[in-house]
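anyone seen this seq b4? input:
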Amino acid sequence: MTAKKDKKARRLARKRKVQRRTPSSGQQVLLNRVRASQHFQNTQVVVNPAGTAKMSEIILRFAEPFKDDDGLVPRAMLEIAIILWNASFMPSDMQRKAVEDLVNVFPRDDSEARREMLRTAHMLLERKKQHFSDNKRMIMDYHITESAHSIHLDVVSTVPEGYHPEP
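predicted toks r here
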């Protein structure tokens, strides 16, 4: 009987060891950050609310103009798209400041990169107005996972106005 218990204990120990080595999913990383954040205390987290579109998919569609030859949106462009998505909810003076902050990431003497960022920002803000104006959900946090042949986006966002979870 002891041999069976030892075998079972070894099997469980191996399983736990594998679990420790297995990286957390992007969704789990975000859930852990939300739970640990002082900003989200007393916040109810609803994973994939029924009847609502996934914000990660919406952001990927929003950033679609930046797909590369492999059909993937590069990480940096996803991050810029998320910043500008949220900036689209700001009053115009704050929106201008957010765009200015993005442009100022580039050195002053790199006027071409600065102009390109300004064009990109205005294009995305206009794209938000034209194609996603009904969507008022803000991105609260995100996690991007990259591999050699893919990129995966996980998002924590506000829920849609009027959303009521089913009891």
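The helical segments are 2-21, 26-36, 55-62, 75-87, 92-103, 111-131. The first helix runs from residue 2 to 21. kinda curious what u guys think
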